[in-house]
Design goal:
Structural class: mainly alpha
Helix content: over 70%
Number of domains: 1
Number of strands: 0
């Protein structure tokens, strides 16, 4: 459970995810996946 919370706190460091600039779900989810990959590679 704590790993999920840590994952979302890392995702919120990406301003585009935190503020949801993209209004289309496909664009938003694409950037969430990209941010998740970047977070995974950095850890």
């Amino acid at each position: 459970m704590y790993s999920i919370e840590r994952f979302f706190s890392k995702l919120k460091q990406f301003r585009r995810v935190a503020t949801r600039y993209d209004k289309l779900l496909a664009n938003f989810m694409g950037f969430v996946k990209l941010a998740a990959i970047a977070s995974w590679l950095n850890s």
